Amino acid sequence: MHSHTYSGNPLGCAVALGVLRIFQTQSVLRQVQEKSQWLTTRFQEVLGENPHVGEIRHIGFIYALELVENLQDNRVGYKIYKKALEQGLILRPQGNVIYFNPPLNIKKRELSLAMRRTQEFIKEVLLS
């Protein structure tokens, strides 16, 4: 028999059941679907015309912003990430792609602020 010390831990199982109850009673997945549709539209409105942003794609609530157009520096994604982190926004750089992965319980006003700040950081880094 093979097992792990964390397998079937009663406390972990109780926490998991509590999270599942919250997902059901607060319609978390439905809210995430609505926020995702809203965020997709907003990203296109805010960043769709930016010459430095190519494809804006997503799977569920994970968004990827592809950086393109005259990028001489292959660390530009990392620089945007660092600038955002200094201001309290966590993005994920992966080469020339910035990942935007908000928590499921984020409010629309917080999403809007994070998206505007992301746009500002992209402009700051690419225009400097």
UniProtKB/TrEMBL annotation:
Q: Pfam families attached here?
A: Aminotran_3
Q: Does the keyword Transmembrane helix apply?
A: no
Q: Which UniProt keywords apply?
A: Aminotransferase, Transferase
Q: Organism's domain of life? A: Bacteria
Sorted alphabetically, which InterPro entries does this protein's record hold?
A: Aminotrans_3, PyrdxlP-dep_Trfase, PyrdxlP-dep_Trfase_small
Q: Name one GO molecular function term.
A: pyridoxal phosphate binding
Q: Which GO terms describe its biological process?
A: biotin biosynthetic process
Q: Where are the transmembrane segments?
A: none
Protein name as it appears in the record: Aminotransferase class-III
Please report the organism this UniProt entry assigns to the protein: Megasphaera paucivorans
Q: What phylogenetic lineage does the species belong to?
A: Bacteria, Bacillati, Bacillota, Negativicutes, Veillonellales
